[in-house]
Amino acid sequence: MTIEEADPSAAARVLFGNWTGRSTVPSHSLYPHQWSWDSAFIAIGLRHLSPQRAQVELESLFESQWADGRIPHINFSPSVPRDAYFPGPDFWQASTPSGVETSGIVQPPVHALAVWLAHQADEQESVRRNFLAGAYPKLVAWHAYLREHRDLGGRGLVAIVHPWESGMDNSPAWDKALARVEPAPAGSFTRRDTDHAEDADRPTDLDYGRYVQLAATYRDHRYDDAATPFAFALEDPCFNALLIASEHALASVAKALSLDPAPHLQAAAELTAALVKELFADGIFRSRDLADGELVAADTVAGLIPLLIDKLPVATELLTTARGPRFRLGEVRMVPSYDLTGPAFEPGRYWRGPSWFNTAWLIHRGLVGLGQAELADALRTDVLELAAATDFAEYVDPYTGEARGARDFSWTAALALDLERAQL
What's the CA gap between 189 and 214, in Å, rounded? Predict the structure, then answer.
């Protein structure tokens, strides 16, 4: 009996349907390649179906790692037509020494956490396959790239250099910085995302043109962080919070390999102190725009993700904000991606208001760690109900729960599966 036959659940069918042999596409229509933080979230769900498949998911992603340690945000599949997604491999002009074609930017570093959870799902299989020993040096190099090459503000925090690197592409937190960017000419590229999703759910053509220009500038400077004149560079609280969580996970990996966990615990402590000192204001974490050194006056779900950090000193204040009028945790569907009272709030447009399943999963993890059992259980129930009711939508309206974006979305299925199985 195959694992597909062994688990006929709806979430499992989505993951099996999006499996390509060594990795899982987020969506066959909208995202037909392998995405970085998607694969990490997908592996967290796959570990309940097949720990080995979860390990392979992550190992296949690590094959796209560059010599400098970065893990690009897209690992392009040679079996997919080159123009099926834009920007595709011809635009990025990037590849590993072994010839794997990739993008040149990165995504949030949730990978070490995914590796540790995949290992815990079947430790004997992990040891048999040498999974942790193979992943550890790659993760060390990945974190070193971020801390050594992306501390652009000199504050001990990692900076993103493109909205896509945040994973929250169209967030209102990027509006001010993006307004400085001259967009690529409208006729110089052809969008593919609007072939598969409603225009009203996606970024505007103007913003997309700015995304393209930022990526082209980085490409034309050969993805050199020291040489590129970044028009967009911000310290993002979600990105840094996930690096902290992954440093804690990497400490556990090191310990399991009989290595010293202290460097990872020290890195996590240093990052946590910098995060609280530099980005916490008005009860929430905010992004800092390195162009002017100012915190961005836009409150987004990225500012709540630090709830998952172990022993976060401002956790009580942050939880109060999550439950307050800006996000209404426990009162609306999951967790809105942007301040419900904010001037740029749109309930259906990509990262400008809708609730997402991956951020809900991260906040649920934080609530469990804080001992907030009632809130955590309510959020878990909401995630499971919405995932089933929307055919595993990419994201939903925070008031109505209406499905938005793609359906049969892999991380939605994977994280719903995790919340269901992890409670058994």
Answer: 14
At 268, the amino acid letter reads: A
pLDDT tens string 333-348: 999 999 999 999 999 9
- Could you tell me which residues are beta bridge partners of residue 404? 395
Query: How long, in residues, is the chain?
Result: 424
Per DSSP bridges, beta strands 234-235 and 395-396 are unpaired
| Whole-number Cα distances in Å, 151 to 146, 198, 233, 293 | 7, 37, 10, 14
Residues 6+ away with beta carbon under 8 Å from 289: 176, 177, 233, 234, 295, 296
**Which helix (H) or strand (E) is 374 found in, with range?**
helix 373-389
The predicted model scores a pTM of 0.96
Residue of 165, 394, 418, 420 marked catalytic: 394
Whether the CB-CB separation of 70 and 106 falls below 8 Å is answered with yes
Rounded Cα distance between 84 and 156, Å, is 39
Q: Other C-beta atoms within 10 Å of 20: how many?
A: 15
Assigned token pair, 161 = 């250099």
DSSP string, 6-38: H---HHHHHHHHHB-SSSB-SBTTTB-SEEHHH
CA of residue 43 relative to chain centroid, distance: 13
How many other β-carbons are positioned within 10 Å of the β-carbon of residue 330? 14
Is 235 a residue of the active site? no
Check: CB of residue 33 under 8 Å from CB of residue 25.
yes
- Of 169, 270, 377, 385, the active-site residue reads 169
The reply to whether 199 belongs to the active site is: no
CB 318 within 8 A of CB 304: yes
Q: Can you say how many angstroms the Cα of residue 241 is from the centroid of all Cα atoms in its chain?
A: 11
pLDDT in tens, 111-148: 999 999 999 999 999 999 999 999 999 999 999 999 99
Tell me if 202 sits within 8 A of 193, measured CB to CB.
yes
d(CA 145, CA 141): 6
**401/289 Cα distance (integer angstroms):** 32
Q: What's the CATH class of domain 3-421?
A: mainly alpha
